[in-house]
Amino acid sequence: MKHTHSILDAQNELVNWEQKLLSYEGNDFEKTYERWLHGAFDSLPEQWKDHVTSSIDQWIFHIYAIFHESSFQQDAKERILSSARAFDDQIQTFEDIKQLSLPKLKYIAEQETSRHGLYSIIQGGLIGTGRSIFSTMSIPATLITNIRVVQLLSYVYGNDLSSPYELMTSLKVFHAATLPKRYQGQAWEKLKDELHLQNGTRYFYNGDEKVITKEWLELGIQELVKILAVQLFQPKKEGKVPFLSMVLGISFQYKMSKKISEFAHKYYLYRYLLEQENK
């Protein structure tokens, strides 16, 4: 009875979140900015446009492949399994994690997103120092950190990324989660459609393997604006602590990490609830 009540609460929470996401339209500034950005991109020669998006796609795939096999990621996977075994010592694999009740799964997920938030604060503070090494690494570090939290939430809800389907799905979730909010409703619906079209077979991926769209390029511009803003608020006197720019860097990174981890958590929660319904 208690488990059923937690499922209903989660369903209501998800419905409310989804309604807000789908009803968001953006303000006049966002719409004007969107027209300018799309116009600039559409004015490029066709081969350039394809090259830009395909190059970013390959770059993200390389980041994923390198990071997925890293000892840092392997340690995180073991940490999630250990957290699950604290609730049930019979758990051996990520598939077994699905045996836990929803409150326990959400608890582990919240632990991971809190840890991710702390990493983003540290990362934002380092970028805010204005040192060239941290500014140069800002974009790849942001991608790595946020791809990682999507992967970890996939593991928390019992989805092992060793299969092509889970690999591609995690990248699609990452893409949707990093989009400007006015595009996220459409991306959310597409993720749900692809999930239903799999017909229960979740090893090979049958959908479109292209991840990056032109709407995603706005993230790159946001990152450049962040770096410029941090540089603008650097103290004029040498040796002075760059307090304002560090606060700005932390604010940028934390806001983005919260947005991405929330979207990813809602997606994997939706999948969990759907599986419970189909049992």
Write up what this structure looks like.
InterPro entries: EcsC. This is EcsC family protein. Pfam families: EcsC. This protein has one domain. It has helices at 2-23, 28-42, 46-68, 71-87, 102-128, 132-136, 138-156, 164-178, 181-197, 217-232, 243-277. It is globular, with a radius of gyration of 20 Å. The model has no long low-confidence stretch (mean pLDDT 80). Helix 3 (46-68) crosses helix 7 (138-156), helix 4 packs parallel to helix 7 (138-156) and helix 7 (138-156) crosses helix 8. The longest helix is centred in the last third of the chain and has 35 residues, at 243-277. It is mostly helical. The two termini are 17 Å apart. It has 11 helices and no strands. 76% of the residues lie in helices and 0% in strands.
Secondary structure elements and pairings:
Layout: H1 2-23, H2 28-42, H3 46-68, H4 71-87, H5 102-128, H6 132-136, H7 138-156, H8 164-178, H9 181-197, H10 217-232, H11 243-277
List keywords for this structure.
single chain, 11 helices, 76% helix, 279 residues, mainly alpha
Mean pLDDT: 80
Kindly state the number of beta strands.
0
Helix content: over 70%
Distance between the termini: 17 Å
For the largest beta-sheet, the strand count, sense and barrel status come to: none
User: What is the SS-derived class?
Assistant: mainly alpha
General shape: globular
Low-confidence stretches: none
Radius of gyration: 20 Å
Number of H- or I-type helical stretches: 11
Strand coverage percent: under 5%
- Integer count of domains: 1
Order of helices and strands: HHHHHHHHHHH
Protein name: EcsC family protein
